[in-house]
TrEMBL record, chain A:
This is Sugar ABC transporter permease. The keyword Plastid does not apply. It is a multi-pass membrane protein. InterPro entries: MetI-like, MetI-like_sf. Residues 76-290 form the ABC transmembrane type-1 domain. Its main location: membrane. Belongs to the binding-protein-dependent transport system permease family.
TrEMBL record, chain B:
It is a multi-pass membrane protein. Part of the ABC transporter complex MalEFGK involved in maltose/maltodextrin import. Probably responsible for the translocation of the substrate across the membrane. This is Maltose/maltodextrin transport system permease protein MalG. Belongs to the binding-protein-dependent transport system permease family. MalFG subfamily. It comes from Ferirhizobium litorale.
TrEMBL record, chain C:
One of its GO terms (molecular function) is maltose binding. Keywords: Periplasm, Signal, Transport. Belongs to the bacterial solute-binding protein 1 family. Gene3D superfamilies: Periplasmic binding protein-like II. Residues 1-26 form the signal peptide. SUPFAM superfamilies: Periplasmic binding protein-like II (SSF53850). This is Sugar ABC transporter substrate-binding protein. One of its GO terms (biological process) is maltodextrin transmembrane transport. InterPro entries: SBP. GO terms for cellular component: ATP-binding cassette (ABC) transporter complex, substrate-binding subunit-containing.
């Protein structure tokens, strides 16, 4: 007992206790819930048997049925486009803004704080506002584009199959940019200033300093931000519900909205769970990439 | 180019960027002051013609917002405490070592956050009802939010711990500190700002949490403001002006608090707590 | 007459309920009621009034959002946390009734002094039935008709007392009224990919002789082609595909559309906000003299099968039914009953509109009833969207829908 105690205070036990507790908590809550989804994807689920795990097993039938549906592949492709474009947009704009505010002019930190509105505003409201901004006839975006002469005819962002997915991506980039910017700002501010002074003495220009100091020093932050960005974009649900409902004709449908639609609109819980399992596999691949990237992190 | 000119130029650009970015917020504020169908006017009004200022008072009164916001605060504070207590240590360990077990731990933590709340709610609801947690609905929501947001917190705080020089901790150990002592006296204070920023981000997320609260909290007296907001919405009743007025009351104080806090946190960092 | 009649009815209801309540007086029974009604709608107010009667039955009310009714109910029912009474959207009633989740009320209704099946419109009543038995009581009803802006009719040289009667006339009128330079579309409606799209399209198909179980007839194809003409010629906004009925009618109220297809739930907002003269007409038919049809909306009351207090729950429902004559006056909803004449409101436009809606109600058909209704509805929505976005012809789209519905029907 005493050895156990001293190990917790002053040895490996300390580390293990710190990790084991939260992991146990997460496994009990999220882990079991995920497992429930996985199990359900192999079962025949009746809407009234949600409360039990004992349901008839059907093997891979749900998976076969799902991939036999014509909309499956387009929706998976939409998801890939949505995730890639959203993360790229959020990161590039977020990094740009972080660097811009890093130059530290008067008022910089006030304004930077204001950018966090997208993080504070409730999802319901954000969705509703983008719904109006993007609406075809009386939308503000079309109004501005028209007045500035960029378009001659209204673009029906929500209802034109060529634009609907990009309409949601646009809103999602807006939503995620501030998060990227704040975290990258914190990352930037922890880079020791003397590194830059030294580099400047060596005659490195701004571009070289960015590539040789800023980026490598930010590796941990960037890895974390992109990994989280992936998870946030895959969880993005409110915007689809508010702006396009996945339509028209599935042109803006993505797995997370589709899974919900299957489960709670058509009450086909097994298919909904099957789609979530496909998402899990997708994120598993991405998580491996992230975890591998942490091997090259620089410890301060 | 002189410094003041440069400053003014930068400030101008920053204001322009902020104006573009904050447009949705602005739209929320002015919609609250418009009448119902004015939303659909074409061309849009960029300024409310007949501002309905009394709407804030009306909404506050008729919706009993004080109670809703109190519940939101309780839930958000609870969730942040659970997350910070459990998550900080975990993030520290995951940053300190570099081996296969750490990889597995990180991997698990990320994986557990994949599915959106709208898909997780059914299994969590079923599980909570089995163990009787639904009788304590706010606690149930706090735990569910903690499970949802903790991976996010861990990944962020881990990145912060990565920037704390390991030599400092080793020096403390050599000086005779225990592991616990070194953690609390040296490492934690150095990572303070990162933890604080992450905790605030979590707080704001938890403050607006909606899906879990909606399903698990059935008694109106215990529901948070996000659920209260949702009661305005329905297929045949979208009182957008009231929704926006409600959202304005709900969001503005947190936004103001954050603008003040982040200034201290982020600029505190730049001015060299860590160097 | 008016006030005395109400007072009598109220007293009668109070007496019935309190006598019935006596037996339960020994200890207070709590009955949970879930419905989507907000503070100005019937359920919470009726609950308040009922509790004031002190019958020994205490009713607790929880508001649920429209989108969540079914998922919340299922989750609660399968974990044993279901309420005693729920208000459920009529096309979803069969989903629960067919699985035995709702209590069979046939015997209780037969004995009841208050609830009489003969008093109800056939459509709403049919939606509460499954397998010949009563699994609920209609709560209210609604349907859709054609709203039109009389001022715009006049300014385009059309007769404001002659709204379009047939589909061709509707399209023709919409062409005349559409005025892009003034930001006015001829028509607004909803073809959204959710139940609202189905709700708006089925009447068109039914008027042309089709139904959900034979959705790919020539008549239904013509209906969808008519919709497509309206969208393709921009007689209605392309956003019709993603906009709800409420939002669509908002554009009518603000003068950006000259006609709108929607229901009586719009009346109060329109009276308050529309700054022009408007009227309501029956839905146009395929050709003069064709059969009329309309959609039937709104909710039903039902008691969950696992309630501890079926008798008490039914008493609560009896009280709700006894207050049906207040439905329109106090809450602006149409009772689903043919034996109640709705009193005038004194607002001429609203009263005229009401007459049209009541007539239209005679042609209203329920969706289903079918236990797999959501899947059938989804097939129809997919067809509408595929045709209107030009990805399939109306015939192909409806053929595909028919095949999917056949698979569901088994």
């Amino acid at each position: 007992m005493k050895r156990l105690f001293s190990s917790i205070v002053d040895g490996k036990g300390f580390d293990i206790a710190l990790v084991a507790l939260p992991l146990a908590f997460l496994l009990a809550l999220s882990g079991l819930a995920l497992l429930y989804n996985v199990v359900m994807s192999f079962q025949e689920v009746d809407m009234f048997s949600l409360g039990t795990l004992w349901r008839p097993f059907v093997g891979f039938k749900n998976y076969r049925d799902l991939f036999a549906q014509p909309e499956t592949l387009p929706i998976l492709a939409n998801t890939a486009i949505f995730v890639t474009a959203s993360i790229a947009g959020q990161f590039v704009i977020g990094f740009g803004l972080a660097l811009f505010f890093w130059t530290n002019f008067p008022g910089a930190s006030w304004l930077r704080g204001l950018f966090l509105v997208s993080w504070v505003m409730p999802g319901l409201v954000v969705g509703a506002i983008w719904n109006w901004i993007l609406s075809g006839d009386f939308g503000v975006l079309n109004f501005i584009l028209r007045e500035s002469g960029l378009i001659s005819e209204n673009i029906f962002w929500r209802s034109d199959p060529n634009f609907s997915l990009w309409a949601v991506i646009l809103a999602n980039i807006w939503l995620g940019t501030s998060f990227n910017m704040i975290l990258l700002s914190v990352g930037l501010s922890s880079i020791p200033g003397d590194l830059y002074e030294a580099a400047e003495l060596d005659g490195a220009n701004a571009w070289q300093r960015f590539w040789t100091i800023t980026l490598p020093m930010m590796r941990a932050s960037i890895g974390a931000i992109i990994a989280l960005g992936l998870i946030f974009t895959l969880q993005q649900f409110d915007l689809f519900a508010a702006i396009t409902s996945g339509g028209p004709n599935n042109s803006s449908n993505v797995t997370q909205y589709w899974a919900w639609d299957m489960s709670f609109r058509q009450y086909d819980f097994a298919k909904g769970a099957t789609i979530s399992v496909i998402m899990i596999v997708f994120v598993m691949a991405a998580s491996i990439v992230y975890v591998r990237s942490t091997r090259h992190e620089v410890r301060g | 180019m002189s410094d003041t000119l440069r400053d003014k130029l930068m400030l101008g650009v920053a204001l322009a960027l902020a104006a573009i970015y904050l447009f949705p917020l602005y739209w929320m504020y002015i919609t609250a002051l418009k009448s119902g169908s004015a939303m659909f006017a074409n061309p849009p009004d960029f300024w409310p013609r007949d501002p309905q200022w009394q709407i804030y008072g009306e909404v506050w009164e008729s919706r009993n917002m004080g109670r809703y916001i109190w519940n939101s605060l309780v839930i958000a504070c609870g969730a942040v405490s659970v997350i910070a207590i459990l998550g900080t240590g975990c993030a520290y360990v995951l940053a300190r070592y570099r081996n296969v077990w750490i990889d597995i731990g990180l991997f698990l933590i990320l994986m557990l956050q994949v599915l959106p709340a709208s898909l997780m709610i059914t299994p969590i609801f079923v599980g909570f009802s089995q163990v009787g947690l639904l009788d304590y609905p706010r606690l149930a929501v706090i735990l569910a939010i903690a499970a949802k947001s903790m991976p996010f917190f861990i990944v962020l705080v881990r990145a912060t711990f990565m920037s704390v020089p390991q030599e400092l901790e080793e020096a403390a150990l050599v000086d005779g500190n225990s592991r616990v002592g070194a953690f609390f006296n040296i490492v934690l204070p150095l990572a303070r700002n990162g933890i604080l920023v992450s905790a605030i981000l979590i707080f704001m997320q938890a403050f607006g949490e909606f899906v879990y609260s909606k399903s698990m909290i059935q008694a109106v007296e215990l529901q948070p403001a996000s659920v209260g907001l949702n009661t305005f919405m329905g297929p045949n009743t979208n009182e957008w002006n009231k929704i926006m007025a409600y959202a304005t009351i709900y969001v503005t104080p947190i936004l103001a608090a954050f603008v003040l806090l982040q200034r201290r946190i982020v600029s505190g960092l730049t001015s060299g707590a860590l160097k | 007459m008016g006030i005395r009649k109400y007072a009598m009815l109220g007293a009668l209801a109070l007496a019935t309920v309190s006598i019935l309540g006596m037996s339960a007086r020994a200890e207070d029974v709590t009955i949970n009621v879930w419905a989507l009604d907000r503070d100005i709608q019937p359920a919470p107010n009726l609950v308040k009034d009922f509790n004031a009667l002190n019958t020994g039955i205490k009713v607790e009310f929880r508001q649920i959002q429209f989108d969540d009714v079914v998922s919340e109910a299922m989750r609660a029912y399968s974990t044993g946390q279901a309420p005693d009474i729920i208000a459920i959207d009529n096309p979803e009633h069969a989903l629960f009734a067919s699985r035995g989740a709702f209590l069979n009320l046939t015997a209780m209704i037969a004995k009841s002094e208050v609830v009489k099946t003969a008093n109800y419109f056939p459509g709403p009543l049919a939606s509460t039935m499954w397998d010949g038995k009563n699994y609920g009581i209609p709560k209210a009803t609604n349907t859709i008709a054609l709203y039109y802006n009389k001022d715009m009719f006049k300014s385009k040289g059309l007769d404001p007392d002659k709204p379009p009667q047939t589909w061709d006339e509707l399209v023709e009128t919409a062409r005349k009224l559409t005025d892009p330079s003034a930001n006015v579309y001829g028509l607004t409606f909803s073809a959204k990919a959710n139940e609202e799209g189905t709700f708006q399209f089925l009447p068109w198909a039914q008027m042309a002789g089709a139904g959900y179980d034979n959705i790919n007839t020539a008549g239904a194809v013509k209906a969808l082609d008519t919709w497509k003409t309206i969208i393709d010629e921009k007689l209605a906004s392309p956003d019709t595909l993603t906009r709800s009925q409420w939002d669509s009618t908002g554009t009518f109220n603000s003068g950006n559309a000259a006609m709108a297809i929607s229901g009586p739930w719009e009346l109060d907002r329109m009276v308050a906000e529309a700054k022009f003269d408007w009227g309501v007409a029956l839905l146009p038919v395929p050709k003069a003299g064709a059969e009329r049809s309309s959609a039937m909306g709104d909710f039903n009351w039902a008691i969950f099968a696992n309630t501890e207090y079926p008798e008490e729950a039914f008493k609560v429902l009896e009280y709700f039914v006894s207050q049906d004559d207040r439905m329109f006056k106090d809450f602006g909803q149409l009772p689903a009953r043919s034996d109640i004449t709705i009193p005038e409101t004194g607002e001429p436009k609203k009263d005229a509109a009401l007459k049209v809606f009541v007539e239209q109600l005679n042609y209203a058909k329920p969706r289903g009833p079918h236990p797999e209704w959501p899947k059938i509805s989804k097939a129809i929505q997919d067809a509408i969207q595929a045709a209107l976005t030009g990805q399939m012809s109306s015939q192909e789209a409806l053929d595909q829908a028919a095949a999917k519905i056949k698979a569901v029907d088994g």
